[in-house]
Amino acid sequence: MALRKSITEQEFTSLINIPQSGEELIRIYSLSDDDIIFIKASCRGKTNHIRVSVLLSYMKFPGIIIPTVFIPDERILDLLCNQLEIDKSHWKDYDNLAETRQDHINILRKNYGYENFSSTYYTDSLFNLTKFTLQTDKGILIAQQLVKFLRDAKILIPRISVVQKICSEALINAEKQIHDTLSSVLSNHQKQLLDTLLNLQEKSSISQLNWLKQSPQAVNSKFLLMHIKRLKTIKDIDLPKDIGKDIHQTRLLKIAREGRQMTPQHLRDFEESRRYATLVAILLETKASIIDEIIEMNDKIIGSLFRYAKNTQAQKMQESGKSMGEQLGVFFKIGNALLDARETGEDPFDAVESVISWEALAQSILEAKNLTAKQNFDSLYFISDKYFTIKKYGGEFLKELELRSAPVAEDILKAINILIDLYEGKIKRLPEKLPSSFIRKRWEELVFTENGIDRKFYELCIFSELKNHLRSGDLWVQGSRQYKDFEDYLIPSDRFTEMRDQNGVPLDVALNVEEFLSERMELLSNKIQIVCKLIESNELPDSSIINDRIKIKPLENTVPEEAEVLGKKIYSLLPLIKITDLLKEVDQWMGFTDQFTHLKSGNKSNDKNFLLTVILSDAINLGLRKMSEASPGTSYAKLSWLQAWHIRDETYSSALAEIINVQSAHPFSSYWGEGKTSSSDGQRFATGSYAQRTGNINPKYGSGPGVQFYTHVSDQYAPFHTKVINVGVRDATYVLDGLLYHESDVQIEEHYTDTSGFTDHVFALMQLLGFKFAPRIRDLNDKKLFIPEASTGYSALSEHIGGTINSKKIIQNWDEILRLAASIKNGTVTASLIVKKIGSYPRQNGLAVALRELGKIERTLFMLDWYMSPELRRRVTAGLNKGEARNALARAVYFNRFGEVRERSFENQRYKASGLNLVTAAIVLWNTVYIEKAVQHLKEQGEEINEELLQYLSPLGWEHIHLTGDYVWEERIKLKKGEFRSLRKV
């Protein structure tokens, strides 16, 4: 296997850079008393003293021998001279002192034990890197580990070519070891079955392996069964039970990703151990994806059944509306006739007959009975109409999922096993005594009838509750990623105990629950008292109390008219530019395309124009085939190859971080904020074509299916994170993801969302993870406050208090709360996954309840701040407005194909969202740079600019950017480094 370049020269330089922190410099380059004595004793003269001290300092860190002609860092020189009490003018280059210099080096090596790198240390270095390279294949991380080993061993760092060779060889050795580990446990029969995956399917033009990798084309029983067939195919290979458990999951995923991009022919050409290892990795990854997709498909089918039942009920109610009116009219007349008969003494039977015949009355009563049947008032009765949808795949679905349960869900697991026996014919009918503790009250009348258990409703109830229990984690599936045992998501209990005992829990809160609660409760009590006093004295800022409801004065438009005039003038000066030229120019500034490295080799793409074409096709929603037609000289095959090998979630994230970092560091961005606050919001895009069948429906957005791109935007307008989310899931589930998992240098302290972005659980986790949380909550008066303990001292807020905080629950579950938060912080589990599971837990679950109680404290504190602080309300509104304005830009960029998401696979949908976010970030950066140029131009023209107005400018305009037309990457328009385009003339 050929060696490849593992790190770049720039990365190598970063390894031997001098620290920037003053504290680090002092720590590393302070001389001990023994050092000073040795330096002064080893040579004569102040010049030699300072030369020896500099040589020693660079040997210590970064671990090199400085070259003959060398100028040391001024800060190090100052530090050493101060300690030696020598004027730094004594420093001179070593041009004519080679022998003396070598003597100094030899003296230092002998006294301090430093060694030059040699072939002996080459072997030692490889051995030291073995374990590390089994965990990661990132060259820079491996090089950092190598340099650390050499420094610790007092071995001087060799030249870059040697470092590259060691890292590359260590990577190759690790890959070979992983391949051998995965392939050596396979039997000959298993290897034969793996080889058959590379053959074409019968009567098909695709291989068995490619068939396994296909996503379901639609959400229905037919395609769910086909997906189950894929799962069974993988199971039939019968891979060893724990295969891959000893391989770091990052490396296993990397092998799988590489293999998925290979053709069957390429895989056949691999050396045997690599071929089988790659196929195993692909199958393990594919199996987990299939299991999760099967569960998600079932969830959507169950959801569609409930929608059908609700729509059917509504339709029947509408159809029977006229009959209901007629029957009410009849009974109204009868009632009046009977009342009149009572007054006059007339025979009531005669009174009834005067209105309606007895035959007609009997018919009317029968019709009324039908109209008032229970199914007309509970849609659940109609769900049995679709029972056969479930029955088509139910048996296979339950049998192939390896379900496990927590004690609380044992009853439903028993019921599932009975259904499996029923489907397989092991039993002919349901037993008389059935597990039923999981059956909710709403289902009871449908399941338990006069004639016994209704199988249809019993089975439908099981599938409905199975969905809920999988979401909460009370049931889990072996081999799944999204639905595995809740404990597997968290730091192991014994490891967490060790972390807590060693004060290593990565949370900036008091670990002692009494101390934590005492501080929060005292703060809560004080704020409630302050708000009560303000209400009683009618001094609540910009607020009034009407009928015990707090009415907050709406915020007025705070953008001065002069700022709008200035904004128009500034934008009229910005150069007209094509989107292709804009992207090329931004790339010239910081080379964000360098982050799109090859999946296998890690090399940068040599075809930057083609790479930018692929990125732009994602951003403008054109698709590769149409993009190739709109880009002269570009082939679909080339674009497709670049997308397969260079476009990934991590490369998009790294490239975005490059742009965000440059924009955030630009001096003009400081007019908009410090980069410490942010907002997030979901932007819905309809799904069309094939994707329409896999989209989700949320009544909030109408009856059509769609997906959401959920984006985090800093106060400097930088869109630093985006994620594709299900429109049917509350936004709050994903708020923390953007704050924790972005790769930019942005350091967020306070975050804003709208109403859908908060839950009490999120409030609690925000506090534990070190973020201030400030959602704009709709109908705030309807949200209750919670107090530390029952008290009559809060009469001014009595109508708004919903109860007291259950401190006992928090105390009982405090260690589990900390373990959960620490697991999120450490990256053991993603925040969104755990928030979704915790939110799905039944109310009696101790951890969920305790976290909710903690969230009530934080939400109440926030609501009290909201009542008291107009500045907080303005800050939140301004932050959310920036996010909404960014969404308008995104909508303008993502204009092709009616702005619909048409990619069926979730992976390709993510690429669309990432490409769109990357291009909007590039527009924000380009606008930031040229807005500053335009402001400077106006100043140079003698126009007085009010600095206070600059905060109201926005880098989100696009009127000057040509987003349509042929996408040509002009080579003739190439700006030199430091050059910029000319502004327009007004």
TrEMBL record:
<comment type="similarity">
    <text>Belongs to the transposase 7 family.</text>
</comment>
<keyword id="KW-0815">Transposition</keyword>
<feature type="domain" description="DUF4158">
    <location>
        <begin position="8"/>
        <end position="170"/>
    </location>
</feature>
<dbReference type="InterPro" id="IPR002513">
    <property type="entry name" value="Tn3_Tnp_DDE_dom"/>
</dbReference>
<protein>
    <submittedName>
        <fullName>Transposase</fullName>
    </submittedName>
</protein>
<keyword id="KW-0238">DNA-binding</keyword>
<feature type="domain" description="Tn3 transposase DDE">
    <location>
        <begin position="581"/>
        <end position="967"/>
    </location>
</feature>
<dbReference type="InterPro" id="IPR047653">
    <property type="entry name" value="Tn3-like_transpos"/>
</dbReference>
<dbReference type="InterPro" id="IPR025296">
    <property type="entry name" value="DUF4158"/>
</dbReference>
<dbReference type="Pfam" id="PF01526">
    <property type="entry name" value="DDE_Tnp_Tn3"/>
</dbReference>
<dbReference type="Pfam" id="PF13700">
    <property type="entry name" value="DUF4158"/>
</dbReference>
<keyword id="KW-0233">DNA recombination</keyword>
